[in-house]
């Protein structure tokens, strides 16, 4: 009877969904730790030159994680008020995707799908009551949505025009590097975002003068959206008070 | 009679100019799709190693696009209230430039002019009612025009002084790279915009110390205008309410 | 008697703690100059190809600095109202760490610990009455703390997802460069911060298209916190008035 | 008599100092054009592989410019109310420095001093009535002076600590690149400003992890001042109304 009482559906529901209770908080923390552990094993598996022992250890940890995630998935189905709506919900799909590949194929490498598990990390915000900051960000984004779209569109045109321009200036001098407008797009992207890997850069006088004008006009267009979000966030924060 | 009624000048005028009506909206969308298609074919034509079949296909698409743009141009002249003022207007010139090169020369490569067609993309904003965002941007720009000019001018002086300085520090050590003040300008541009391709960089102690001071002072001058536009945009948005 | 009066505990306390008095100000400036001198000698010692004479000179300066710091430490203990609480305080620990390594080991190279002496530089702000600016910054930081944490967390997820993505696109083409997700993290960091050393960059079409999307989304996430601090600082400044 | 009237001291004074009159405006424009021409000749002279004819032409233009600047200097002395105070004023010194090197030494290359002529370009702002924007910038700068100093100081400490850190991580692996803390400072500068030339970058795991933390903390410190100036400028603009 005691066992039944402790593991009653109500208590389990609170465990899974109510992170305000101590046990629920621990459960949420455990799942989050498990997610991070699974990301680390996932990353470690990509390392070359792993010994057979190391591969076996990683596979073992992997198996344990999947079993625990499976138990969590079954538990969530069990405690759900409307089971079908959970299974076909966004998080229900994510939870299934985190375990399904392991069962379907050990030979096939479908582990990428487990990445979707990442979305569960968003629940961390609920724990730390970051929902306020998230909603403020959402309101700030709505506030600047139009400008963002406008700048995004203008940035795309800017990137395209820069590619076409540099193609005309550099194609003759560097036919290997600036083969086509599509190849030049890579230059436009790395230049206007100021990444500047150095794998492509103009060497003709015309190309350099063109880059001067592209940067003078383009830097603002690419960088302004960042400033827009920042000022919108401070504005929504001010409006709250 | 019915044909005449449907294709009356009034109806055609609404088709071309009034994107609020369903047909006008479809017409605008069709022209925009055509513009994007012509940009893609234009870009594809720059690809090296195209087969003869591919070149022929692209030329065919090209021809169809120009014919459609020609029909649109003639339609716009026909429905215009003041035909001459349309022909000599900005968009009239753009519309002509989008088709003229094709007729003038098949042998000559004047296709670049078609790029002006890009300006028509700005009409997209009207469709999505982005005019409000555009006008806000315009007011924000007027608000910061003086500072922008001031910073633009100071940025040019900064670029020039940096070039002269680095020329004196690096010319002896890297005569190939820092050949003249003009060559050094390219270094100043890629450094102050933080692109940093890595094709030119100081190697002397003096040049490195000089770069330190240039970056400390220069970064602000080059980056401030972006912040100015962002804050001006948020201010104009606040004033609207 | 006069000697006793001049070197009374009260006077010495004022000397050490009260930088408003002339002597106290001079004492503070002297200690700061000593800190900067010790940083310069520390840096000079890392230079290769030093002659034996130069090494001896640096060691001599080093010894004099440590003796002076020791005297200062003993003086601070002597004038402290609660000696133990000073010794076990943060600055007491720093003061000890600045001299201890020298006495413990001449052979062992523990000089790194002396770096903690750097924290004393923070006292400079008190002299120039920058405490107001520092406190404003502190209030501004508290104002945006939640957003900063949110963006910091999202930035980490962004970095991780970018690494995993580029690993899948580039691993086959550049197995040496993009060996694992961990190696790709270095690429993600230098790209999203727009540093772009050029030691790692995508060469496949897929990798370049992926980089386009990573930069479009990622730049904002990494750069917004800077804008947040700036606007929060201007807000707290406005609130003060 | 007419000659005397036209070239009276009053008229000449108006010519030199009052750019509101038509002649004064033309005089100012002429001097500015001359300054820009002298900058261009100065830059052209740095070009290698100039023919003897080209060198002679540049020297001729140079001589004419100096003669015109000398006439301007003498004119300014003649019309000055207090001649000595003009000669020993900032602009008086600049005006002298623009011509003196030419007379002192034709053999010696003291042409660098002519650079000070650049400061005269600042007068352009007066013409276009940009004084309002300049004064707003000045007020904005005063508003954020304390934070700027604070951030400047923290940025220097950040640069130094980053250099020391990377030196310890990379010195063993790349003794040629990271020779000393001073050599590492160059890396810290190009990394924290996100220039990233690619001439120095960490290759050890420790160095890369260290760079991660340096960038996470450092980017904000280096970039915040820009945001500060931008928000301060928008604030001062708002206060004006």
CATH superfamily of the largest domain in chain A, please?
Voltage-gated potassium channels. Chain C
CATH architecture of the largest domain in chain A: Up-down Bundle
Low-pLDDT ranges of chain A: 124-130
Largest sheet of chain A: none
Rg of Cα set of chain A: 26 Å
Helix/strand order of chain A, N-terminal first: HHHHHHHHHHHH
Return the structural class of chain A.
Answer: mainly alpha
Average pLDDT taken over every residue of chain A: 78
Largest interface: A-B, 41 and 42 residues
Q: What percentage of residues of chain A falls in helices of 4 or more residues?
A: over 70%
Give the quaternary arrangement of the chains: homotetramer
Task: Figure out the total of helices of chain A.
Answer: 12
**In CATH's first tier, which class of the largest domain in chain A applies?**
Mainly Alpha
The CA-CA distance between the termini of chain A, in Å, is: 52 Å
Please count the beta strands of chain A (DSSP E, at least 2 residues each).
0
Give the strand content of chain A. under 5%
Which descriptor suits the 3D outline of chain A?
A: flat
Instruction: Please give the domain count of chain A.
Output: 2
Q: Fill in the CATH topology of the largest domain in chain A.
A: Four Helix Bundle (Hemerythrin (Met), subunit A)
